[in-house]
Each structure stands twice: as structure tokens, then as C-alpha cells.
Amino acid sequence: MNKTLLTHQQIFSLKPETLEARIMTFYQETQNSSLTIKYLVALRVRFKLGAQEFAHILEDLVRYLFMNTKATRTMKRFFYYFKDYFDAPEWKRLTLRVFPLRNFGEKVVSVARSLMSFVRPDNTTEPDKP
Q1: Among 51, 89, 109, 123, which residue carries the largest CB count within 10 Å?
Q2: pTM here?
Q3: Through-space distance between the first and last CA atoms of the chain, rounded to whole angstroms
Q4: In 3D, which of 27, 30, 59, 32 has the Cα closest to residue 43?
Q5: Cβ(95)–Cβ(63) under 8 Å?
Q6: What does the radius of gyration of the chain's CA atoms come to, in whole angstroms?
Q7: Which pLDDT score is estimated for 102?
């Protein structure tokens, strides 16, 4: 499949059932998670524009892509659009999985700050001398 599966006109005009079938078939045939995520983001936009039937469209596919496939640049870019597909503990694990280096950096900074508090003097002011 060299061409894209859906045009922007199709994404914003087809029924949810048709879109679900086409996107699932596309992913099963190509295993192209990046383009699949882009289609899913377009469906999230359609939901935000007022189409309530797109609230949790293809939830199983979204959960599978984010939890079981390799984290791609596209996945990282659109990661936060799918927060409501996961509960809090899953979201925390998923964030650690998708952004391991960022989380490592945050932990290093937090440990460094806690160690600095032992070395720095308190920020108390001395009483004025007469």
C-alpha cells in the first residue's frame, strides 16, 4: 500500500463503523503504527468538534499501539491526546515507557535538589544587630 488509506474528506465525513473497519484493516495489513496514530488523532479532532460517537473509537487499537509497540516519534508527539483511554496507573507506566530519558532526567534533578538542601544553609534571616 503505497498511497494513504484515507483522505481528510473521508476522515471527516465517513461513519464511525466504516472508519473503524478501514483503519483496523489498514493496521493489520501494514503494521504502520505512525500513520495509524495520525488517523486516530484526526478522529480525536472530529470528536472534539462535536461528534460524540467518536469518543473512544478504536480504544483497543489505541491501547495496543501505545502499550505493546515500539515508541515512535509520532507516538511521542501525539501521546497526550489519548490520556483518557488509560486509567491513572496505566498512564504513569505508559509515560515511563514512552519517555524513559525524560523521566530519568526528572529523577536525577529531584535527587540533586534534595541533596543540595543538606549542603545549603537555611534561608533564615539573622536578627538585626543594634
Answers
A1: 51
A2: 0.72
A3: 85
A4: 59
A5: no
A6: 22
A7: 63
